[in-house]
């Protein structure tokens, strides 16, 4: 069972998400927070697997809450999925820097939201090709905006792992990478996981940032 924590300042939205999530056999809402401070507290007490985090909340906002959760060693297994009105904006960029595993629009279809929670819980990052390219573009345009990601050396990667990291940074899923490289999805996932481990990246979102900073990919039009 995947344990989900809801963080949104609007009770009606939380109620809708709760009903949707609890209607499944493999997902369960274990807590609700109306602001970021409460989200941090509940993340620690409920040991949720995924926090569905709204960014714009009064008091401690979702960005600060995301940073607090993802930087807490005791909460290393907790993933943050950001809810946003737009697919890409400055708050989402900062959330990815802060350690969020991805983001999904509030207008997404119900099944897409449920699949997103499952994907993030499994350790993958939710970044569409469009959002990935926008993410890279924003880092290129404002490389010093917000706390930088730690520099990583790509020397430890095999040529195939470097290739896989590049494909991840273009927004491809494991299945799409497998198809591109003519390998099994399991092999593709193994390459991704090994690259993450070697680069000390906790998920695919950070691989995107590392790939850009290392020059493996360029911003659109760059």
Structural summary, described in words:
The chain contains ten helices and five strands. The longest helix is centred in the C-terminal third of the chain and has 15 residues, at 185-199. Helix content is 50%, strand content 13%. With 222 residues, it is an alpha/beta fold. Strands 2-1-3-4-5 form a five-stranded parallel sheet, with helices on both faces. It has helices at residues 11-22, 36-46, 62-70, 90-98, 110-121, 129-141, 159-169, 174-181, 185-199, 204-213, and strands at residues 2-7, 27-33, 50-54, 79-84, 102-105. It folds into two domains: 2-126, Rossmann fold (3-Layer(aba) Sandwich); 139-213, Arc Repressor Mutant, subunit A (Orthogonal Bundle). The protein is globular. The model is unreliable at 145-151 (pLDDT under 50).
Q: Keyphrases for this structure?
A:
single chain; 222 residues; alpha/beta; Rossmann fold; Arc Repressor Mutant, subunit A; 5-stranded parallel β-sheet; 50% helix; globular
Main-sheet strand order equals 2-1-3-4-5
Q: What's the overall geometry? A: globular
Q: What is the CATH fold-level name of the largest domain?
A: Rossmann fold
Mean pLDDT: 83
Question: In whole angstroms, how far apart are the ends?
Answer: 44 Å
The CATH superfamily of the largest domain turns out to be Response regulator
Describe what is shown at a glance.
The chain is α/β, with parallel strands linked by helices.
Q: What is this structure's SSE topology?
A:
Blueprint: E1 2-7, H1 11-22, E2 27-33, H2 36-46, E3 50-54, H3 62-70, E4 79-84, H4 90-98, E5 102-105, H5 110-121, H6 129-141, H7 159-169, H8 174-181, H9 185-199, H10 204-213
Parallel strand pairs: 1-2, 1-3, 3-4, 4-5
Helix pairs in contact: 2-3, 3-4, 6-10, 7-9, 7-10, 8-9
């Amino acid at each position: 069972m995947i344990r989900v924590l809801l963080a949104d300042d609007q009770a009606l939205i939380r109620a809708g998400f709760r009903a949707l999530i609890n209607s499944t056999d493999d997902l369960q809402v274990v807590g609700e927070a109306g602001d970021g401070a409460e989200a941090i507290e509940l993340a620690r007490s409920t040991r949720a697997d995924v926090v569905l985090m709204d960014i714009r909340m009064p008091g401690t906002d979702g960005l600060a809450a995301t940073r607090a959760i993802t930087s807490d060693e005791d909460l290393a297994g907790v993933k943050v999925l950001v809810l946003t009105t737009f697919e890409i904006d400055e708050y989402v960029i900062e959330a990815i820097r802060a350690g969020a595993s991805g983001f999904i629009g509030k207008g997404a279809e119900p099944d897409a939201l449920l699949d997103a929670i499952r994907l993030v819980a499994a350790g993958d990052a939710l970044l569409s090709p469009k959002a990935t390219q926008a993410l890279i573009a924003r880092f290129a345009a404002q490389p010093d905006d917000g706390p930088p990601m730690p520099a990583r050396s790509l020397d430890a990667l095999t040529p195939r792992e470097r290739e896989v990291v590049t494909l991840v940074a273009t927004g491809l899923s494991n299945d799409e990478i497998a198809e591109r490289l003519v390998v099994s999805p399991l092999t593709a996932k193994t390459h991704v996981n090994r690259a993450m481990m070697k680069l000390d990246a906790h998920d695919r979102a950070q691989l995107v940032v590392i790939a850009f900073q290392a020059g493996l990919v360029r911003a659109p039009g760059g």
